[in-house]
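Homework help board

Subject: predicted structure for assignment chain

Our instructor gave us this sequence and asked us to write out the predicted structure in token form, then describe one feature. I got the tokens but I'm not sure how to describe them. Can anyone check?
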Amino acid sequence: MRIAIGQIMHETNTMFGPPTPVEEFQRQGWDTGTEIFDEDTGVRSYLGGMIDAGERHNVEIVPTFSANAHPSGTIERAAFDTMLNNLLDGIRNAGEIDAVCVSLHGAGSAEGIDDIEGTILQAIREQIGPDKPLIATLDLHCHSTDLMIENATALLTVHEYPHVDSYERGYEAIELAVRTITGTVNPVMHLTRLPMAIAPITSFHGPARKVNERCWEWEEKGLLDVTFVHGYPHTDVPIISASVIAVADGDPEFAKQASEDVANMIWEMREEFRTELPQPAAAITDALTHEGQPVVIAEVSDNPGGGSPGSGTHLLRAMIEANLENAAFGFVYDPETAEQAHDAGVGATIEVSIGGKIDPDHLGEALKAKAYVKAVTDGRYITTSPMGQGGQRDLGKMARLVVGGVDVLVGSESHQTIDTGPFLLHGISVERYKVVGLKSQNHFRAGYEPIAAKIIRTDPPGWTTSNLKQLNYQRISRPIWPLDEGVERG
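My token output:
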């Protein structure tokens, strides 16, 4: 049995940033053929799960093409066409195959194409024919569309946020493909979309946990998979929505029952998903009243994991103005300051202008200060978080600067902080600090909840704010909760 695997992964924020060219994918994640094995074997990723499942079930995994870039602006059309053609060529050149499993995001948009995943699945389906299993793994911050449902045999979306189950979803994709090839199961899907735009919310606890538990109850009744799809609100395309995807074994009515039941639950409890978060000064005051440490403050509104640049200064400025003495911030995207620190060298004291170089009117002006250069590194480390564990991270040239009583990390790649790696790389043990600031929505929880005395999320102005009414939507389908009043499910 031979199964082809591949990946085109991008979470597209159409509201901010220049178009994303092919060079960004080539620079960040571009693998052909067996290079995929080199990159993902032993890594807790979607493709890592597929590779391990192939070995476990004695399936020949045929790697085709993989492209991946951090969340950013709309993909240039030429870049998307190149990636799609590479993936299709890889599948075409794979020889005789029994199925295709692909890792997609679900919230990718290119110039002229709002739904690149539906387009990818349609193109693969046209190439391999109507009968071969085509299974896709997806991020739960995806746009679930009819085009995706029509062309895939099954869509397997992660259940958890942080996405600590990406590996498991990849593994299950291969297992489901094997069962489909052998005739053991016949996957059928039902999609229920809701007029809701949900600000990012963790599944570890709270309302999303309740919904996941209902999904798992349906799976215990015999469904192959039932997933609460949160959707991706930090973009402006008509297909934004929360949804539920249910996969049954040959029984479309069973899938519909499950999907509608979970969707009804989400709609009825929608007010529990409304998010109101404190501003930085209030978050710091709250942190200082807590006896334990570290207290982690996440600046959700400037999250590179959602397409914001990570160069904002709102939380960092508040930490310094609060005269904190035992605090660390990791990290601000600022290649210029990182380069300045490298040039000056460890032990130097330099005049810096941290952040504020991208959209300062919105994300905060540069923080001008005198800083001591404590450490400089190449920004490379291995992920320890359950999300992507074992994967290589490259944050470019980095520096640890001491500004007042705050240790400030600056880096040269726009990336959210998901584990303690960036701090450890610069000699910082976060457990020894009272307050630790970082930029992330919820992915940081996988690495920090086990060690944090308390977690606080703060929401100053930014492109990934949880206050969705602050975003200037132009194209999304209206009415939609929570932007509009009196929204009916229909």
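Reply (TA_rk): Your tokens look well-formed. For the description, you could write something like this. The chain has a mean pLDDT of 97. That's the kind of observation they're looking for.
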